[in-house]
């Protein structure tokens, strides 16, 4: 009976050891999947931040271009206004001369 108890004990130890090994491998696999998902989330977040940064840069460039066009139009309007003032001054001079 002693040898059958020893055999049963060895089988039980091997079964428990196998179970522990399976649990350890499963735990490592679960941890690897968790880390992969975490890295994927970080990667997506970084990509989204870069995209947002690029969009802000593009929006900033568009605002600068719009401001440059506005400045050019304002300069053009100022020139036209100066010409109108000159013409008005000439008309006023002619009207004074006629009086």
Question: What does it look like?
Answer:
The structure is a single chain. With 99 residues, this protein is mainly α. It has 1 helix and no strands. It has one helix at residues 2-98. It is rod-shaped, with a radius of gyration of 42 Å.
Structural class: mainly alpha
User: How many angstroms does the end-to-end distance come to?
Assistant: 143 Å
Contiguous low-pLDDT stretches (5 residues minimum) are none
Helix content: over 70%
Molecular shape: rod-shaped
* Average pLDDT level: 84
- SSE run: H
Q: Would you count the extended β strands for me?
A: 0
Largest sheet: none
- Helix count, per DSSP? 1
Beta-strand percentage range: under 5%
Q: In angstroms, what is the radius of gyration?
A: 42 Å
Main attributes of the structure:
99 residues; mainly alpha; 1 helix; rod-shaped
Give a nutshell description of this structure.
The protein has 99 residues and is mainly α. 0% of the residues are buried. The model has no long low-confidence stretch (mean pLDDT 84).
Compile the SSE list and pairings:
Blueprint lengths: L1 H97 L1
């Amino acid at each position: 009976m002693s040898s059958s108890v020893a055999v049963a004990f060895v089988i039980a130890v091997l079964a428990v050891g196998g179970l522990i090994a399976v649990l350890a491998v499963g735990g490592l696999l679960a941890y690897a999947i968790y880390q992969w998902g975490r890295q994927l989330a970080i990667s997506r977040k970084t990509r989204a931040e870069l995209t947002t940064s690029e969009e802000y840069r593009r929006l900033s460039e568009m605002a600068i271009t719009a401001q440059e066009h506005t400045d050019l139009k304002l300069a053009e309007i100022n020139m036209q206004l100066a010409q109108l003032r000159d013409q008005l001054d000439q008309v006023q001079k002619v009207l004074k001369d006629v009086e």
